[in-house]
Amino acid sequence: MITVTLAQLTTWISQYFWPFVRIAGCIMVAPMIGTSMVPPRMRVILSIAVTILVAPLIKQPDAALLSGTSLVITVQQLIIGLGMGLAIQLIFDAVVMGGQLLANTMGLSFAVNVDPLHGASTPVLGQFYTIIVALTFFGLNGHLMLIDALAQSFRMLPLGTQGLGNDGLWTYVHFGSVLFSGALMIALPGLAALLIVNFAFGVMSRAAPTLNLFAVGFPASLALGLIIIMMGLPAVQSTFVRLLNTGWQLLATMLGD
């Protein structure tokens, strides 16, 4: 007859519970995987599958599962997982914001649709950019790199009560600026071109005050904006790849590698 003591049972549970908290926290907010398009049940199944593969290789902390120390460890693992997922999600949000800035300038701000990634109404140009960078993300095996970063995080930042520390948290806070700088890098070429177009129409309005600028300028701005978008797609992709590399470097720095 096989007998299992309470200590053995809690040890087995803790071996998988703490890694699961970190992995699930990351997957629940990770780009594309953590969106509303993926059912929560599938995200939980994916978290369990990754945990089963990773947990046997992790050194367990010397703490009882039902204790105050265990609660601290659980909170720290959740913070680490959420931080890793949100760091990459910020890059996708930067692309969406860049598309919104460009859409507002060229007159497409009224063309909105429900964004399934964020659960809100956003300009279709931002959603178009999201599709482009999502395909790029999967084409570069970004989802596999994120899972690999999760697995490596247990080596660089083992399970324990220390968490990210002040340096890791401040590094993550400063990385929040990529949301605005990345959006500006994506939208700036188009904004500069459309600014020149609007300036030209301003000169025309002074030369011909009777000219209906809304009837003439809006179609012209829209047509030129579409041409700028088509010509700027390679730049959007390259900018996203550069931002993504910055995100991977942030994860390495944040985890103390």
Please describe what this structure looks like:
The chain is mainly α. It has helices at 6-29, 40-54, 68-106, 124-139, 142-156, 165-175, 178-207, 213-254, and strands at residues 112-115, 120-123. The protein has a two-stranded antiparallel sheet with strand order 1-2. The longest helix has 42 residues, at 213-254. The protein is elongated and about 90 Å long. The two termini are 47 Å apart.
How does the SSE layout of this entry go?
Blueprint: H1 6-29, H2 40-54, H3 68-106, E1 112-115, E2 120-123, H4 124-139, H5 142-156, H6 165-175, H7 178-207, H8 213-254
Antiparallel strand pairs: 1-2
Which parts are unreliable, with pLDDT below 50 for 5 consecutive residues or more?
none
Q: What gap, in angstroms, lies between the N and C termini?
A: 47 Å
Bin the helical content: over 70%
Structural class, by secondary structure, is: mainly alpha
Question: What's the shape?
Answer: elongated
Mean model confidence by pLDDT = 77
Number of strands: 2
Number of helices: 8
**Main sheet: strand order:** 1-2
Oligomer designation: single chain
As a whole number of angstroms, the C-alpha radius of gyration is 24 Å
Strand content: under 5%
The major beta sheet can be summarized as: 2 strands, antiparallel
- Compressed to H and E, one letter per element, the order equals HHHEEHHHHH
Summarize the structure.
The protein has helices spanning 6-29, 40-54, 68-106, 124-139, 142-156, 165-175, 178-207, 213-254, and strands at residues 112-115, 120-123.
